[in-house]
Design brief:
The protein is 0% helix and 37% strand. It contains no helices and 20 strands. The chain starts with 9 loop residues before the first strand and ends in a 17-residue tail after the last strand. Bound molecules: beta-L-arabinofuranose. Beta-L-arabinofuranose binds next to β1 and β14.
Length: 331
């Protein structure tokens, strides 16, 4: 069983990247800040209220197994003009010597939006743009840059992540609170949008990144063990696009493979079996010719909202499928 990478603070939702030969992990910074936020206006209907994060901390290391440095706050909610609360799972990207931190937070109306902050260093401090990305909503941004230099953002999360409140791209806080659409309808899909060359805005309206079964049919809302819930991540392996994600209520990290960054993505199976705690969130990154799964569980606190990030090696089978990882079994 992998052990927490750091124990001095609680961290979750690790998005790992290699910049200049060093591994950087952009994580949620979990805090124990009293009881869950109350279910009152303007936040009525929101869930995930125990996750009250207010800043981001970056972890870094020069190799897997090496010393893990915990860096000072990279971005604090007080320095984000539009954000009111709940800085959830972030991601980062680097381009032409600049670094971009992407993050969801609730605005003053209680709607999750996705912001971007910039820095000359992968460690920050990052300076937030005054407004969220136009046309952004929901949570869990993951920015993938293809071999041709074009970047795409994948995002969205059900339930407390509000994907079901944004079905037309317009925030509707009175949308049914139920996690899923009717069971026999196609599930809500993660969203994908091309990023503008300056990495600060979408270059197009977000569209569905369809996850389909082997027959090419969209996964259904009632297919809880396979349908998308939150925590999208994109990586490329041998020319194919691997979209991995959390199934939320059933606690798997699953994956689906496509021929284009837009999909459709055909469901393949699981990457990671359920971890300790309710949430599961990951990233997959290549470092020096080996592949690594960064993930989080609640080993240190035994509380679902106080998590710790971990890493374990990920292996492909010769046919390109991923060997399933059981977090409670060491190799
Ligand atoms: O950390 C808060 C939320 O929990 C994330 O945004 C989700 O992916 C889940 O891990």
């Amino acid at each position: 069983m992998s052990q927490p990478l750091v124990t001095s603070i609680y961290t979750a939702d690790p998005s790992a990247h290699v910049f200049g030969g060093r591994i950087y992990i952009y994580a949620s910074h979990d805090i124990d800040d009293g009881p869950p936020l109350s279910d009152v206006e303007p936040f009525k209907g929101s869930e995930g209220n125990a996750f009250k994060m207010r800043d981001y901390r970056v972890l870094s290391m020069d190799r897997i197994g090496g010393e893990v440095k915990v860096h000072p706050p990279a971005l604090d909610i007080k320095d984000v003009p539009w954000a009111a609360r709940q800085m959830w799972a972030p991601d980062a990207a680097g381009k032409d010597g600049a670094f971009y931190l992407y993050f969801p937070a609730k605005d003053r109306a209680g709607a999750f939006r996705i912001g971007v902050a910039t820095s000359k260093s992968p460690l920050g401090p990052f300076v937030a743009r005054p407004k969220p990305i136009k046309g952004s909503f929901s949570i869990d941004p993951a920015v993938f840059t293809d071999d041709d230099g074009q970047s795409y953002m994948y995002f969205g999360g059900l339930s407390g992540g509000q994907l079901q409140m944004n079905s037309n791209g317009v925030y509707n806080p009175t949308a049914p609170k139920s996690v899923d659409l009717p069971k026999d309808q196609p599930a809500l899909m993660p969203k994908v949008a091309k990023m503008r060359a300056d990495m600060l805005e979408f270059a197009e309206p977000p569209r569905d990144a369809a996850i389909v079964d082997q027959a090419g049919k969209p996964l259904l809302a009632g297919d809880g063990a396979r349908r998308y819930f939150e925590a999208a991540w994109m990586h490329k392996y041998k020319g194919k696009y691997y979209l991995s994600y959390s199934t939320g209520t059933t606690h798997f990290i699953a994956y689906a493979v496509g021929e284009s960054p837009y999909g459709p993505f055909t469901y393949q199976g699981n990457v990671l079996l359920p971890v300790q705690g309710w949430t599961t969130h990951h990233s997959i990154v290549e470092f020096e010719g080996r592949w690594w799964l960064f993930y989080a569980d609640s080993q240190l606190s035994n509380k679902t909202w106080l998590r710790n990030v971990k890493v374990t090696e990920l292996f492909y089978n010769p046919d390109g499928t991923i060997r399933v990882i059981d977090p409670f079994v060491s190799d």
